[in-house]
Amino acid sequence: MASELALPPRLTRDLTEPEPIPEAGIARAIELMRSGRLFRYGEMGADQNDVALLEQEFATFVGRRYCVAVNSGGAALCLALKVLDVRPGDPVLVNGFTLAPVPGAIVHAGAKPVLVEIGADYVIDCDDLRAKVEASGARVLLLSHMRGHIADMDAVSAACDELGLILIEDCAHALCATWDGRAIGTFGAAAAFSAQTYKHLNAGEGGFLVLDDPDRAARAILYSGSYMLHGQHLNRPSPVEMARWEEQTPNFSMRMTALAAALLRPQLSDLPRRARRWNAIHDRIAAGIARSQHLRLPQRPDKARYSATSVQFSLFGFDEPEIRAFLESCAGRGLPVKWFGAGRQHGFTSAPRHWRYAGPQGAMDQTHAVLAGLCDIRTPLSLTDQDCDLVAAIVREAIETVVSARAETGETGRAATG
Ligand SMILES: *Cc1c(COP(=O)(O)O)cnc(C)c1O
Question: What one GO molecular function would you report for this record (predicted)?
Fold first, then answer.
């Protein structure tokens, strides 16, 4: 039948597909495996020290004085809290739209997450930040640039100054992003990045802590587990700072392996090119889905330059069964869409209501209202322009299917999801 022939195409691309590791990284990894020297420290003689070189390169790339490479983004966040003297039981502010390892890092450091509301554009609400500082007495803000959404950093910096807050940036999705020309990751006392597979750099696992203060850098190196071999760091504070902290700092064994660094170094040099392509993919899909009247894309301030590895949008006027029907319709055409509004945590998506270990947080109504409609699509670099157009068409058509089913049952004016 003609209508069968007219069936719109399915997306056959696997959105979970990462980029292959560059050949130079594979070659160096094989060399390291042949030598067996996978630990970052050791009696390596004049051999190249991959982790130490990567730390130097990463610090330069972001524009900070020191970088300490570790085994995950979450570990880097935990170390940031430790070197900023966050003590067990201290309250630490964090925006409510983030990934589970972020409140997790606060708990790992023995501290107490204090969740701050987000607004309709997915970024921190500075009015609620003021209220939460007053209520909790917190002196540290862990600002998560979740999914690369950059808050108004002029407003955040002003609020931190006014409230006497120390800022830590979670840049797991913000490598290459800028605010008013300044790199994200240079606004706070410290910033953390991740090299887990679904970020901008992929070593399977890995993280970076960047900062400028030599005493804090010395402590981070020692905490990360440098044994007595911190002299092998190329990017390190002077022996004076190292000696000051050496016997006061426990070894948490959070090191990056030489293998991870070997895989990452050639990716870092290719990153500006990749980031441009990632943004082109994002912008093409975003423009395509923006043609639907039933969803909203977040407003991005003019000063924010993102580096997107995924696309987010909010369905509005959809109730839960309708959102589930939308997700099913997309999935049926080969497009997995994640949803932050689900009652149960699933895959990589979770929300404040799922972080019971964080302790009571009040209702977080505003954040849950925004998350109730928030959908998320991963955008691997392998997507062609044609794939992007197909992704957008599938989203638009799935929305239309749900909305026309609503019209048929005569229902109008359902409760808005935010
Ligand atoms: C991935 C991620 C992290 C932590 O990274 P891991 O390396 O998986 O520990 C932190 N914050 C955000 C927003 C992330 O997406």
Answer: transaminase activity
